[in-house]
Amino acid sequence: MNNLQKNGYAKYDLMTSLDYDGIEADYKEILDYFEDLPIDDYAPEANRYRRYSRALVLPTSGTIEWLPTIRRDGEEYSAYFQGKFNPEHAGSYREFHSIGASIQNNRLLQEIIMANYRETFWKEEDQIMPIHVGVHFVKLMVESDQDRAVSSPDCLHQDGEPFTFAHLVERTNVEGGMNAIGIPEVRGRKPEEARDEDLHEIFEITKPLESYGVYDSKVSHYVSPVEKGEDDTPGVRSVILIDYQLTVVADMDE
Questions:
Q1: Which of 61, 71, 160, 191 has the largest count of CB atoms under 10 Å?
Q2: DSSP state for residue 149 in the 8-state scheme
Q3: pTM
Q4: Mean pLDDT per 10-residue run, the chain (254 residues)?
Q5: In terms of Cα–Cα distance, which of 139, 133, 110, 115 is closest to 32?
């Protein structure tokens, strides 16, 4: 039993554990890609930028297959549905700009996806079908002392997917971006509104590929808004979020 299964969450240092010849160049390619993320169309005032794509992990071969996109006005989009679990977008589909094929094929991104997958756990019968993977590139960026960049939702929450992992890509000249892990019953609250005994841990991820994962049914989680630090440069906090869920087979009796 790993820490994710035992405690409901776990922390990682993937720059160390995934170390291979060329990892720095692959990381730099991902870092550069984050510079030009498009604004989150669903919250243009939140100083949040993002791309999203969907893939399958094939359990028998351990390979990754990226799913087709939606093409609108010459742009590629991928659809995302979080059901009731995001109170800011409950029950609605959102379409985000897709992650480009060159980055989908980046070795480091694929190594991260598979490293996360190996941390997940499923019933034996569940692994006869592909595991669905959602990959979010999310950047919070603030350019003035008055700006705040906010994650969605801005409260302790559960995602609805069985497993979610967050991997830091960049943290530069920012205040905030604090992570909190709590019991499921405090979802919908801010950490300061929860009792200390209902919070497992409060921490920050600060180094490239410093990461954490959550087992959704056992915990809620949160990241606080980001504000600009003391330097004259923009404040940036960039992460890769990756979620994993089962292929759902329709119940023909319903």
A1: 191
A2: B
A3: 0.92
A4: 96 98 98 96 90 94 93 87 48 81 97 97 87 96 94 93 97 97 97 98 98 98 97 97 83 46
A5: 139
